[in-house]
Amino acid sequence: MTAMAYLAGFIQVSGVVVGTPLVIGLMRQIRARAEGRAGAGIWQPWRDLRKLFGKQLLHPRGTTWVFAAAPAALAATTLVIVATAPLVATDSPLDPVADLITVVGLLFLGTVALTLAGIDTATAFGGMGASREITIAALVEPTILLAVFALSIPAGSANLGAIVGNTLAHPGQVFSLASALAFVALCIVIVAETGRLPVDNPSTHLELTMVHEAMVLEYAGPKLALVEWAAGMRLTVLLALLANLFFPWGIAGANPSPVDLAVGAGAIAIKVALLASALAVIEVFLAKLRLFRVPELLAGSFLLALLAVTAANFFTGAGR
């Protein structure tokens, strides 16, 4: 690994950490404007985090170290994904392990940590939210594997940097049937993984419909701030991965210069802002699905991912 690879890793980690509250603020502001409200501004999530970090640290009576460690585990796994994924450049300090199995495993590890924390509270809402979250995760993670695997077939590698590099070298693959199916499947599972409408409503506190919020009801102060920050970073890095897997133009290639890294950082910031804005606008016109309808939606996304793998195998084999 060169010094530029480590610099790229530093830029994307610091960019996601600092920029995540702005992404959440942008989405809330766009949704407020679309609903005819003034909105609190894109800086409001930063103000909320500052307020939460300044509060007293509280622990519910009867909880164990699992509840206390879950926010740190969620944040740590997310940051490793950020450092691993090709966001600013195709090379990263963790490039040898930057494959789709690593990313999916880290996503699931963070989910398990949070669900165990929900169960550890021994409350009805915590257990309910944990049960719903792990059910959704069991349907989401295989779909992510299949969708990205469809993109890895033409590249001949499961390494994310190699997949992005192959798309840069063969831009026509973006408009293939396999890419279109994989893109739709990934959009659906990213919505489910990050708890957005129509799978979950991040702004609701109606107990019977909560998923993510039900697991974190007992958190307060700095722990709650860390959970919300980590959840926002998950959304940001998944949107960034979606952008670079299908629209990688602007990302720095191998052996980049500082100018290439600056262009790559600017490009991924614009792409994430556009995807986040589109997601916020779409959410205005969506209602939350009933819980028993969510597996049907995720099963449909799994079928799309499976069709993407089939199409990628067929057309790659035909091309040979």
From TrEMBL:
The chain crosses the membrane at residues 6-27, 65-88, 100-122, 134-153, 173-192, 231-251, 263-285, 297-315. It is a multi-pass membrane protein. Pfam families: NADHdh (PF00146). The keyword Methyltransferase does not apply. InterPro entries: ComplexI_Subunit1 (IPR052561), NADH_UbQ_OxRdtase_su1/FPO (IPR001694). Its main location: membrane. One of its GO terms (molecular function) is lyase activity. It is found in: Membrane. GO terms for cellular component: plasma membrane. The keyword Isomerase does not apply. Keywords: Lyase, Membrane, Transmembrane, Transmembrane helix. This is Formate hydrogenlyase. It comes from Mycolicibacter sinensis (strain JDM601).
